[in-house]
User: Fold this.
Amino acid sequence: MQKIGVMVGREDSWPGAFIAEVNRRDLGIHADFVKLDGTPMAATSEYDLIVDRISHEIPYYRAFLKTVAISGTHVVNNPFWWSADDKFTGASIATYLGIPHPRTIALPTHSYIEGIIHPDSLRNLRDQIPWEQHVAAVGGFPLILKPAWGGGFKSVYKVHTMEQLWEAYNQSGTECMMLQEFIAWQKYARCFCIGQRAEGVLVMKFDVSAPWPNRYFDEPDYFSPEEHDRCAEYALTLSKALGYDMNTYE
Assistant:
């Protein structure tokens, strides 16, 4: 019997429903939650496939998934590519693919880990960040300051003045932050991509201001056919370029 393992965080609805549906179909495939207490080097896994929904927040999980991927377990998504991926790289890839993306600039970090001594360890950095130049390059205020890594709208700031920008940047610690053009959107789409085929793309209305978790809305007429198809095309193009088996795009 083949086995599917699921790794999740605070999700409640999807993981249990997915496991129950796989087991209900009785196709010689069993699904359950992965349980860990330590991983030897070169370890193998009892699972043929692991669906990963949480390793981006848990470093130990990433170490485990890379190890079992080497031994032959298929992991969704590829843990090696995920470790190399970040929002700034994604912005660059989208631009090269001809997909519109808010103008974005990566910034030197505000602070550094112990052992990094200024200026000896940072001789490749110029003395000052040209704030006015960078702000102008992304379209001026208001703009977005957010981490190059991570998700879930954590540490994302909308700033209207240079003083607000500096205040937010001064709180960013060792995170690599990005300045990003603010888009005053009229419609907000989130696209689910399962696999890398057109039938696996689901385009939905998304409202980030709605109470969690009720932020997705089934409104068939919210997007015009042209808008829907363009969103689906962009999402599928990015999924193929990034090599993701499961992802969302905004």
About this structure: Residues 150 and 220 are 31 Å apart (CA to CA). Residues 2-81 form a domain with the Rossmann fold fold (CATH 3.40.50.20). The mean pLDDT is 94.
